[in-house]
Amino acid sequence: MDKAVNVRDIIKKNIKSKKNVTEKIMPKVFLLSASISILTTVGIVMTLIFDSYRFFSKVPLREVFSTRLAPLNANPSFGILPLINGTILTSLIAMCVAIPVGLTAAMYLSEFASEKRRKTLKPIMEVLAGIPTIVYGFFAYSFVTPLLMRIIPSLGAKNALSPGIVMGIMIIPMVASLSEDAMSSVPNSMREGAFALGATKLEVTFKVVIPAAISGIVASFVLAISRAIGETMIVTIGSGSSKNFTFDITESMQTMTAYIVEFTSGDAGIGTTGYYSLYAVGLILFLFTLVMNLIAQYISHKYREEY
Question: At 70, is the secondary structure helix, strand, or coil?
Answer without folding.
Answer: strand
